Structures are given as C-alpha cells and as structure tokens.
Amino acid sequence: MFGFVTANIAELTKEQKARYNAVYCGICRQIRDRSSQGARLGLSYDMAFLALLLSSLYEPEETGGDRACALHPIRPKAWVDNAYIRYAADMNVALAYYNALDDWQDEKKPTARFQANLFGKYYADIAQNYPRQCQAIEDCIRELSQLEKVDCANADQVANCFGTLMAEIFVYQEDLWAPTLRQMGLALGRFVYLADAASDYKRDKRKHKYNPYLAMGTGEDWSRWEDYLVLAMGRCTEEFEKLPLVQDKALLDNILYSGVWCSFRRKKKEGQEERAT
Question: DSSP states of 263-276 as a string?
Fold first, then answer.
C-alpha cells in the first residue's frame, strides 16, 4: 500500500524539490542509523509527507548536511534531520515490516520473507519507543487479515481499519492537534486502501486474492471507485486545512491536491494495462 502519498514532481519548484529530497534522504539516513543499511529496502516517499507535515506543524530545530552514502557514493546528497524525520524513519520500518509480512503470508514470496525477517529485527525496539502506534498497527493488520479471510464485502469497513492504523501514526503526541491529525490520518488511510484496491483489481482477480471491490461483486467500476476516493481525500484536506502550517505548506499542498492523484492515475494505468497481458 505504499506509493500513493507522493509529490507531483513536475509541479514543484527547484527549492521544493530540494527540500523534498533532503527530507527523504534524512529519513533514509535515519533508517540506516537507527536500524541498518538493509532496512533501507523499505524506504518510501510516503513517510516524507508525514515528516514534512509534523515538521511544519511543530517547527523543530533541524540539522543538515551534504554527503555521499552507500546508495549514492559519487554525488553527495543534501539531507536534513529533526525529531519528526527520526519518527518517520521508525514508522517506515514498522510499516515495511508488516507490509512484507503480509506479502509473505499472501503470496509466499521469498523476497517478502527475507524483508520481514530483516525489518522484524528492529520492530521490537520501535514498538517499545512507540507502543500506541505499534499496537494500532498490530491490531489493525490483525483485523484486516480476519476481514480478508471472510471475504468482507463492506469496503468501508476494511478501509476504516487501515484508516485507523494511519490515524495513530499521524499522532506523534497527544496534544491540541491530535484530534485533527487523527481525522486527517483516518481519511488519508481510507484513500490509500481504496486506491490500492482499485489499482490492484485486475491482478487480485487473476490471482484470486481478496479485494473489497471483488467481494462486492459489482464488477469493474472506476467512476464509482473514484467517487469514493474524492470523498476520502476531501475529508483529509478539510482536516489538513485546520492546521496552522506555514513551512513547506506549498509542498504539502502539492502532495495532497495533486501528487496523490498523479500516483493514483499512474497505478490505474498500470492496472488497466495488466488487463491486456
């Protein structure tokens, strides 16, 4: 379910691209430092959005630099670091662990088993540092698995389950902004789950895997699915606009108002092309 909450790179200014990549590289460095080089395999731009959002909201002190690394040994890459980038790095590893575990259980891919074992080495420490968030991940993944086993035909129920997971991840701390962040995360999680289900519809049908739209038995209906997504993203941006954001606001706007739709259209095209293969 990774890969939807990303920027529309073509519409970013040079400065915004630099900032976006520096945050991404900062998360990558922290995954290396807090977990391992190998754990970078689970790195996703989706967590860059979370780091940018929380950094904009709380405005922490930042450090940064410009250095080559194992993944980019020739050209130095700019990076930044703060408390929320480190938090995003930990949440990235936790989610990557359960994503790999899910892939292993569903399809028995050797690569998924390898990644689950790799990320699992660091999950216990992350869960100790963030018990509320990791308990939510565990509970929601367990509930999702149960719903999938009974071929749940209620798309709202399964989408809400993943939304609840995202809601807790969006809340770094219980404070004035926690209710708004929870509602935003809930809506964004719903969007991600439903977008993923739509883009995977053909593949899931071919492989006889669970998909809420297949369970509903209504057939392929992109118009209806996109209506669901518009509603979910509308609720997400409604909460987003309540937050007093200044730093990186334009970059965050790009991701929520444009980037997620570019990602969805790209994955939709890939899903439709699979129909012809």
Answer: HHHHHHHHHHHHHT
Write the Ramachandran bin of 233: left for phi over 0, alpha for psi from -120 to 50, otherwise beta. alpha
pLDDT tens digits along 94-149? 988 887 777 666 666 777 677 777 777 888 899 999 999 999 999 998 899 899 99
Residue 162: both structure tokens together: 């993943």
Among 118, 209, 213, 218, which residue's Cα sits nearest to residue 159? 213
Structure tokens belonging to residue 128: 């100790």
- Within 13 Å and on the Cβ side, how many CA atoms surround 241? 7
Question: How many CB atoms sit inside 10 A of residue 144's CB?
Answer: 20
Contact 256, 230 (CB under 8 A): no
CA dist 244 and 167 (Å) reads 19
pTM of the predicted protein model: 0.91
End-to-end CA distance of the chain: 23
Return the DSSP state at 60: -
Q: 18 to each of 14, 26, 34, 157, how far by Cα in Å?
A: 6, 12, 24, 39
Query: Each residue of 184-223: pLDDT tens digit?
Result: 999 999 999 999 999 999 999 998 999 999 999 988 999 9
Burial of 243 (0-12, 13-18, 19+ CB in 10 A): middle
Do 130 and 84 touch, CB atoms closer than 8 A? no
Examine the pLDDT at 173 and tell me if it is beyond 90: yes
Residue 181 CA to its chain's centroid (Å): 15
Alpha helices in 59-171 (DSSP H): 83-107, 110-129, 131-149, 155-170
Q: How far apart are CA 40 and CA 34, in angstroms?
A: 11
Please determine, for residue 37, whether its predicted confidence score (pLDDT) is greater than 50: yes
